[in-house]
């Protein structure tokens, strides 16, 4: 009997062992590995049949034998410097094998250059892709309940770049970069703290003198639906009830800090003034910052416009306020980006007459508005609403220092889905952090009515960029991703800054240079980046250009305005630019060291034509117009900057369109520079 039970027990053990072996062989990763090795062997045999060299045939035979001897096993990347381990390559075996570039998943080769920048043996997989690195089942890709960081979908993958890299550029992570731009542009930091700090800059104009500035009928309609007036507005739509709209309108129409400018009250614009104003509008280059339906800008390539569209300004602005604003923008509206053009009163009235002549037929109803008297009770209610909706997050309002802000966004990118408020949304239906964030951006009251979050003005697809940025706000930054001895030298970065004080700082703020130009990490993108402008251009040319700017690229719509600077002001700006905005890649005292012989210049002339430079640049009356003209370039650009730029365009001039890098050697760069500076008579 004992032998019977012993035999039965032994049979059970054998059956159990067989079941374990069977279950092991049925695991998806085992099946994937066998399929991968079979495909790899097939590719090696095909390569062997095509080989013409004995040594190559022998090498392939060894590879084939190695593949045949390989048995399925768990692959693991141990990252001791991160206290991390990933088993993703248990299934994704072909990530570094170019032969699998067109294979289906999970065998497909990983896109480059990301693996070149982040070798798997040093960085693993989940620091970028997230998910369950230790898992070897389908749940590793996300969807597992209570897993804090599910795997990122491919469309949001750039979010992980910002986890380690603090200074991402548009070329490396364009979606994330655009998302960060939108967060700043739309003023999200006005309500939500990011990085522990709220934004000190308010994106909207101050409202302290609103009753002098705008018409009450326009204001009421604008509060109801901002986009109905301007499709490009940054003002979000709060979907206010009628009573709240009236209350806010009445409150804003009580705000009045400046006295009435009596000298402008009797102004009555006429057709002659409008004609003079049109010419002034064109001469000042207003279309570089503003769109106007009745005016077509010169050039072809558009630039982003920081100013509002002006076609319907008559519906909105009081003429008296407009004239005074055109004369001295910063005095009338502190914090404005509008530069000071030093207009006389007559010129300001001419320009205002032209602007107010636009869309006149559709503005007649508001031209005849009776004098408006706000209701005191509604105005008091409106002040409370301004606090409730945190209007001071974007606008300065006299008497209100703080509103009811939204929650901070730090860590939102790693928020557990169980902590999100989906309201009555059916469980399991699109319940993810990504869908929740998208809904909050596009239709913020999807899950619950009565929330204060407004609808922000995003174009189709831009919500993906903002979500990508938000997903990068995680509480798991990696301070050190380079194991000992593997750190790569960081590329050189410019560290210029906008002048903060002194005569240069005062003049810089008055002219609002950073509305169009970027310096370091501050400023706009309409004009060229000025971070290294001092090392780029010659001092004599710079002074002449500041005094009388002329278009350098006729196809660009943006134009440098003529500020009618005095000689002393030109010298102040030129001194700052020439000394402070200098690239460390360009020497300061090596001018004149280049061989400018006729022979060297002739080599440069031939190389320039062989390289197709005149396809974009005009030279000697021939060529394209996309890039700047190369005639008389010796008067404008410094020798050392030209050489550094030809060596690496994007390094010297961030955002430069001159791509790709042509890989000129030092001799070719010297020849090209000699031709550009000397020419061949």
From TrEMBL:
Presence of the UniProt keyword NADP in the record: no
Pfam families: Cytochrom_C (PF00034)
PROSITE patterns from the UniProt entry: CYTC (PS51007)
Occurrences of domain Cytochrome c (ranges): 174-256, 272-359, 363-474, 496-581, 599-680
Source organism superkingdom: Bacteria
GO molecular function, one term: metal ion binding
Protein keywords: Electron transport, Heme, Iron, Metal-binding, Transport
Keyword Cell inner membrane carried by entry: no
PANTHER family named in the record: CYTOCHROME C-553-LIKE (PTHR37823)
Protein name as catalogued: C-type cytochrome
Organism, as annotated: Tectimicrobiota bacterium
Taxonomic lineage from the root: Bacteria, Pseudomonadati, Nitrospinota/Tectimicrobiota group, Candidatus Tectimicrobiota
């Amino acid at each position: 009997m004992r032998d019977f039970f012993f035999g039965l027990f032994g049979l059970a053990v054998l059956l159990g062992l067989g079941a374990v072996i069977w279950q092991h062989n049925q695991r998806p990763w085992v099946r994937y590995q066998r399929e991968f090795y079979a495909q790899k062997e097939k590719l090696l045999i095909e390569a062997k049949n095509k080989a013409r060299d004995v040594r190559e045939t022998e090498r392939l035979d060894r590879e084939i034998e190695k593949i045949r001897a390989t048995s399925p096993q768990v692959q693991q990347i141990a990252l001791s410097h991160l206290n991390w381990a990933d088993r993703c390559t248990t299934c994704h075996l072909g990530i570094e094998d170019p032969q699998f570039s067109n294979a289906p998943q999970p065998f497909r080769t990983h896109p480059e250059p990301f693996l070149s920048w982040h070798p798997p043996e040093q960085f693993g997989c989940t620091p970028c892709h997230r998910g369950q690195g230790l898992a070897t089942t389908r749940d590793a890709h996300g969807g597992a309940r209570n897993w804090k960081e599910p795997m990122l979908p491919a469309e949001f993958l750039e979010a992980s770049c910002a986890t380690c890299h603090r200074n991402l550029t548009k070329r490396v992570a364009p979606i994330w970069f655009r998302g960060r731009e939108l967060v700043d542009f739309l003023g999200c930091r006005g309500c939500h703290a990011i990085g522990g700090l709220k934004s000190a800059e308010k994106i909207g104009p101050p409202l302290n003198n609103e009753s002098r500035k705008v018409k009450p009928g326009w204001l009421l309609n604008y509060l109801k639906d901002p986009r109905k007036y301007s499709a490009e507005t940054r003002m979000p739509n709060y979907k206010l009830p009628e009573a709240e709209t009236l209350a806010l309108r009445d409150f804003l129409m009580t705000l009045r800090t400046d006295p009435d400018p009596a000298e402008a009250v009797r102004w009555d614009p006429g057709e002659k003034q409008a004609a003079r104003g049109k010419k002034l509008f064109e001469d000042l280059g207003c279309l570089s910052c503003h769109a106007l339906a009745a005016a077509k800008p010169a050039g072809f390539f558009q630039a982003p416009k920081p100013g509002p569209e002006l076609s319907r300004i008559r519906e909105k602005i009081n003429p008296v306020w407009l004239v005074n604003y055109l004369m001295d923008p910063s005095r009338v509206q502190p914090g404005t980006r509008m530069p000071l053009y030093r207009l006389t009163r007559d010129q300001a009235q001419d320009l205002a007459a032209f602007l107010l002549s636009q869309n006149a037929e559709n503005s007649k109803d508001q031209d005849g508005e009776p004098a408006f008297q706000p209701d005191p009770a509604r105005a008091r209610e409106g002040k409370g609403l301004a606090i409730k909706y945190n209007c001071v997050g974007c606008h300065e309002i006299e008497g209100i220092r703080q509103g009811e802000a939204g929650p901070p966004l730090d860590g939102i990118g790693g928020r557990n889905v169980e902590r999100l408020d989906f309201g009555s949304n059916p469980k399991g239906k699109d319940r993810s952090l990504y869908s929740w964030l998208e809904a909050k951006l596009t239709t913020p009251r999807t899950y619950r009515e009565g929330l204060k979050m407004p609808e922000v003005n995003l174009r189709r697809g831009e919500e993906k960029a903002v979500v990508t940025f938000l997903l990068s706000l995680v509480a798991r930054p990696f301070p050190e991703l380079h194991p000992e001895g593997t750190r790569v030298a960081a590329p050189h970065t410019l560290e210029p800054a906008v002048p903060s004080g002194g005569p240069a700082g005062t003049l810089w703020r008055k002219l609002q240079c950073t509305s169009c130009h970027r310096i370091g990490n501050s400023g706009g993108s309409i004009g060229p980046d000025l971070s290294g402008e001092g090392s780029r251009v010659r001092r004599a040319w710079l002074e002449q250009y500041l005094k009388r700017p002329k278009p350098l690229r006729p196809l660009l719509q943006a134009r440098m305005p003529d500020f009618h600077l005095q000689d002393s002001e030109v010298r102040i700006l030129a001194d700052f630019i020439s000394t402070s905005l200098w690239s460390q890649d360009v020497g300061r005292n090596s001018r004149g060291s280049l061989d400018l012989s006729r022979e060297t210049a002739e080599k440069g002339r031939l190389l320039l034509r062989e390289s197709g430079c005149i396809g974009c640049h005009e030279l000697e009356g021939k060529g394209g117009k996309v890039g700047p003209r190369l005639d008389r370039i010796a008067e404008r650009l410094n020798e050392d900057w030209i050489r550094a730029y030809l060596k690496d365009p994007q390094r010297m001039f961030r955002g430069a369109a001159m791509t790709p890098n042509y890989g000129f050697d030092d001799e070719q760069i010297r020849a090209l520079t000699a031709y550009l500076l000397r020419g061949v008579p």
